[in-house]
Amino acid sequence: MSIEVPPLLAVRLIGPTETVAIQKNYLTAFYSEFYGDQVAIRTSTRSARRTGFVRMYLTITSKETHGQNDTGGSPLGDRPGR
Fold it and tell me: What is the pTM of this model?
């Protein structure tokens, strides 16, 4: 039986295409460095209602299944393997 684990972080940005692209690159790089290979980072970009604007969604989930190696600590403060 698979247990759905909630995301560690979910972000939605809405803004001018260039600004959102810069922030997407920054956030992806930052969280990749912060969490390492312990997480999966997914992004998707869609058009927004306003011309020249986009919506970007960034979701960070743990690669570990729920209950394995659970130390009960904060996912931000306790990074496994570091």
Answer: 0.69
